Amino acid sequence: MEVVYEDNHIIIVNKQSGEIVQGDKTGDRPLSELVKDYVKEKYHKPGAVFLGVVHRLDRPVSGLVIFARTSKALARLNRMFAEHDQIKKTYWAIVEKSPLPHREGLEESLLTHWLTRNEQQNKAYAHDHEVPGSKKAMLRYRTIGHGERYDLLEVELLTGRHHQIRCQLAATGQPIRGDLKYGARRSNPDGSISLLARRIEFQHPVSHQPIIVEAPLPSDPLWAALAP
Questions:
Q1: What's the pTM?
Q2: Residues 197/64, Cβ–Cβ less than 8 Å
């Protein structure tokens, strides 16, 4: 477990692919419990340690996760995440090269879809117009790195939908590397998908100071090769 920021009210951890943020039906020990153990040991806390989960990352995704260490921070962070514009989350994604010709100097692109969710498949589906049961999903992205078979995209989420980045990028013909569920041609050797919660920017929920935290790149050398 890698802690990248902590104070009395919040703690930010760099999640590894394969870890779960909160307990689920697998019974695997979640990251939230590891963070509790860390806090208990470091600060010699007697009894139970308070830790609030305010957002999650999919199991095969890596990168930054914020936890609340106090109830005050938890309530305020929950409100900030619900309002979407209070916390800026930037992701990096290694994707299959676009079927469209590359244009130098391409500006940011805005993707808008309406997503439906199949609970049995644990999968989202993108539609180009509103359909029954769908939710509007929006993100911005730009290409920041190029390789022979893959591009590196920087993605800013404007809404928070289930598997949103994975589903929307696949709908453009650029599935995330290793993401078999959404059309990647092969899996990554470690079972990850090449999606990284790279940077989080927000106003501290208690001190109101600006917080900007960036995750280190995963060990796969392709990240470093494509990074600007």
A1: 0.93
A2: yes
